[in-house]
Amino acid sequence: MWREAAGANVATAGFLFILALTTWHFGPSGLEGTFLIGAQLVLAAVMLGLAILGFRKYFRLVRKYQGLFKKAEQLG
Fold it and tell me: Looking at residue 33, what is its pLDDT?
C-alpha cells in the first residue's frame, strides 16, 4: 500500500508541476497568476515530500519483514 500511495503522490506532483508550467505560459497574469502558480508549486512540493516519506516507510517495512517473506516462499 505504501508503494502505491507514494507512486500516486509522485504522479500528482508531476501533474501539478506541469499544470504550473501551463498556467505560467497560458494562464492569467499579475498577482492572480503568480498566486496560482505559487500554490500549485507548493502543493507539488508537499506531494513530493509525502511521496518521499511513503517510499521511505515502504523500504523500511520491506527490510524489516524480508526474512518473513523468505520463510513464506519456502513454505509455499
Answer: 92
